[in-house]
Design a protein that fits this description.
The protein has about 350 residues and is mainly α. The chain contains 16 helices and 3 strands. It has a 3-stranded mixed β-sheet. The radius of gyration is 20 Å and the shape is globular.
Length: about 350
């Protein structure tokens, strides 16, 4: 069918955009329904990665402090990020058929982060899908969207962007929609994580817990893998609320970069995401994509033209229009090199 058409309004109805794509793609590729449903092999990956991360934490308790720091950046953050993606899979009930089993597995994965967050994430992430782009304050229900307070405080300062990206979740008051029900699963998540933390500290000291916490903080903060938080709903193209990344870091991230595909078909688990794109490739090849998480992370912190406000439904600035296709495409010189993390198909044009 060629490049899919997208609405032209400055602030698209992001949920409707994905629903229209979902229906159109299924109409042309009914076989995609065969990709729906849970994939229990994710449970094996979860248990294995938790065991490795906890084992590394115990091992690092006998090592110098610099080893803990180096391991957290290089290996720990990668494992912590991967486990975060598997918690994401469980949040969509893509591991087991029954919701309670997915919740239990998410809690297991979460013990390797050192801080309870799995059940909270599940609640908030499902709202993010349901209300993508509804970013107003205080009534907005897209739980991933930055708040107006964060936008005003951070501005375009590189240092404030870094601090907010790393620690902002601990300081900014969330929207009412982010409130999580304090049910038995919430308390189970809290209790299990605190129990594992206490056992680690009692038997091996504080360093294993420090390793887990630092790895998690980096994984979803100032790390090349953390760049996906910026990439997924960055306002790149007018009328396109979500962006995919197809680079090599998907290999250590359970293909979480296939983000347009995921919002189009949240019932497809990570192991079948590449097959989804291959079956309906004509619906994805014409979209703007993020070509490099590391380069985007660098541009986000160092280029004053990028800001936390550039989130779908919140900003009316689009990178294609601010920088030009040549800049967004990453092939032009000079200023283009700084924001070349984003690729926009189509004819190039100079600034």
């Amino acid at each position: 069918m060629g490049t899919p058409s997208v609405p032209s309004q400055a602030t698209p109805d992001a949920v409707t955009w994905h629903l229209h794509r979902h229906r159109e793609i299924l109409r042309e590729h009914a076989g995609i329904r065969d990709l729906f449903g849970p994939d229990p092999t994710t449970a094996a990956w979860t248990v294995a990665l938790v065991a490795v991360q906890l084992g590394l934490g115990v091992w690092v308790s006998r090592m110098p402090l610099w080893v803990l720091l180096a391991l957290s950046v290089t290996v720990g953050a990668v494992i912590a990020h991967a486990l975060g993606v598997l918690i994401h899979e469980a949040s969509h009930n893509l591991v087991f058929k029954r919701a309670w089993r997915n919740k239990a597995l998410a809690i297991v994965a979460n013990v390797a982060h050192g801080a309870p967050a799995a059940i909270e994430f599940r609640h908030q992430h499902l709202l993010h899908h349901k209300y993508l782009g509804e970013a107003g304050d205080p009534e907005g229900r897209d739980t991933q969207a930055p708040t107006r307070k964060e936008v005003d405080v951070v501005g375009h300062s590189g240092l404030r962007k870094l601090l907010s990206f790393t620690l902002g979740r601990f300081f900014y008051k969330a929207r009412p929609a982010n409130a999580v029900p304090h049910d038995r699963w919430h308390y189970a998540n809290l209790g299990v994580c605190l129990l594992i933390d206490a056992l680690l500290v009692a038997t091996t000291g504080f360093r294993p817990l420090a390793y887990l916490l630092l790895s998690a903080l980096l994984a979803f903060g100032p790390h090349v893998l953390g760049a996906r938080r910026v990439a997924e709903h960055l306002t790149v193209r007018r009328g396109q609320p979500t962006n995919s990344y197809y680079g090599p870091l998907n290999r250590v991230s359970f293909d979480v970069g296939y983000h347009v595909e995921h919002h189009d078909f949240p019932a497809v688990p990570w192991r079948r995401m590449r097959r989804l794109r291959a079956l309906a490739h004509e619906h994805y090849e014409g979209l703007a994509t993020v070509r490099s998480w590391p380069r985007l992370m660098g541009a986000y912190f160092y280029d004053a033209r990028l800001s936390v406000a550039q989130y779908t439904g919140l900003s009316t600035e689009f990178l294609e229009e601010v920088f030009g296709r040549a800049v967004v495409g990453g092939r032009a010189q000079d200023r283009a090199r700084r924001v070349g993390a984003v690729r926009s198909p189509g004819p190039r044009r100079s600034l």
